[in-house]
């Protein structure tokens, strides 16, 4: 697994293939394709898709297919899942799918795994069918995947072809302390969903580091934090653009989900005081500003958390502004020196 400690922070992208007001999922996929090509030139390490279901504003439900689409249009950036939700899939199928991807794009595929269904209970039941009430053991399913990828599985009655013998890095994703303990016990890299679940972030990464057990996959703890970033050439413009992500999370809070909305001049016309507070709690790790402000706030965040990598998600309505935000963030990160 090519994961090493470094004083230069690595930075990556999490994409939900957000569907914008007035657009279609096909438009979202085209926008992701364009963004990934820019990200590769800008020095981003990874481009991951998150698995969600039954959300009108998120089109990344068929995660493995989108990974192949993006990997086929790029040449160096790593592409992967942030993540595959294991309750929804048999480990063998995941092994075959990612074995296929890793065979097509060797050395470039990441497999991030989550233990939540990535959807509501009714949709989860539709996905799992008769297996809905069966117990699910996240660590055991991870071990099954590791076994399918292992050379030692060659004489088993059930084999992952392709997949067997391939070096496909497995990441543990989480938004709680429980996932931190799983990642630590298994000696795997840990990616925390601080972009929407910031409450247990510092506690979880502390537990992970304190309990980490070196493995054949990873010698030292490796933490990646996912954050929201909206950057622009001026702070005023960044604040205006950020109203789209604020509206996105307002839909999460209220249950009134809409397609990604254009920015507005004043959020006070959109939310009430309690809704504003709830959204701000979820978006505790939302970084807004011009290059200098982003640089300053990220320097503080990195020094405080000592994470190895940051993964950025940016719900920005205008595609050109979205690409520009990632450009500014890249420029800011490259100028940060960590001791």
Automatic annotation (TrEMBL):
CDD domains, alphabetized: Flavin_utilizing_monoxygenases
Residue stretches making up the Luciferase-like domain: 21-272
EC number: 1.-.-.-
Pfam families: Bac_luciferase
Gene Ontology MF terms in the entry: oxidoreductase activity
UniProt KW keywords: Oxidoreductase
UniProt-listed InterPro entries: Bact_Lucif_Oxidored (IPR050766), CmoO-like (IPR019949), Luciferase-like_dom (IPR011251), Luciferase-like_sf (IPR036661)
Enzyme class: oxidoreductase
Stored Gene3D superfamilies: Luciferase-like domain
Protein family per UniProt: To bacterial alkanal monooxygenase alpha and beta chains.
Protein name: LLM class flavin-dependent oxidoreductase
Species for this entry: Mucilaginibacter sabulilitoris
């Amino acid at each position: 697994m090519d994961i090493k400690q470094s004083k230069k922070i690595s930075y990556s992208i999490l994409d939900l293939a957000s569907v914008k007001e007035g657009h279609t999922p096909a438009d979202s996929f085209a926008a992701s394709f364009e963004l990934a090509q820019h990200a590769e030139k800008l020095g981003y390490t990874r481009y991951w898709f998150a698995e969600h279901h039954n959300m009108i504003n998120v089109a990344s439900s068929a995660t493995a297919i989108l990974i192949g689409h993006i990997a086929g249009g790029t040449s160096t950036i790593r592409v992967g899942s942030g993540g595959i939700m294991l309750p929804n899939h048999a480990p063998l199928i995941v092994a075959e799918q990612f074995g296929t991807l890793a065979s097509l794009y060797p050395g470039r595929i990441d497999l991030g795994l989550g233990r939540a269904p990535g959807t509501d209970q009714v949709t989860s039941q539709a996905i799992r069918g008769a297996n809905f009430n069966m117990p699910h053991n996240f660590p055991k399913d991870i071990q099954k995947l590791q076994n399918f990828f292992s050379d030692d599985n060659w004489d088993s009655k059930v084999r992952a072809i392709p997949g067997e013998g391939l070096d496909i890095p497995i990441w543990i994703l989480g938004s709680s302390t429980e996932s931190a303990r799983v990642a630590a016990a298994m000696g795997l890299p840990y990616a925390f969903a601080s972009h929407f679940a910031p409450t247990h972030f510092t506690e979880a990464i502390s537990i992970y580091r304190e309990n980490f057990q070196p493995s054949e996959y990873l010698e030292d703890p490796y933490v990646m934090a996912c954050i929201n970033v909206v950057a622009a050439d001026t702070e005023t413009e960044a604040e205006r653009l950020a109203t789209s992500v604020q509206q996105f999370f307002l839909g999460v809070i209220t249950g009134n989900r809409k397609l990604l909305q254009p920015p507005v001049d004043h959020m006070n016309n959109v939310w009430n005081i309690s809704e504003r507070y709830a959204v701000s709690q979820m978006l505790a790790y939302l970084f807004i500003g011009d290059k200098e402000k982003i640089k300053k706030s990220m320097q503080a965040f990195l020094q405080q958390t000592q994470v190895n990598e940051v993964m950025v998600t940016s719900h920005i309505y205008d595609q050109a502004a979205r690409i520009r935000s990632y450009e500014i963030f890249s420029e800011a990160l490259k100028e940060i020196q960590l001791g």
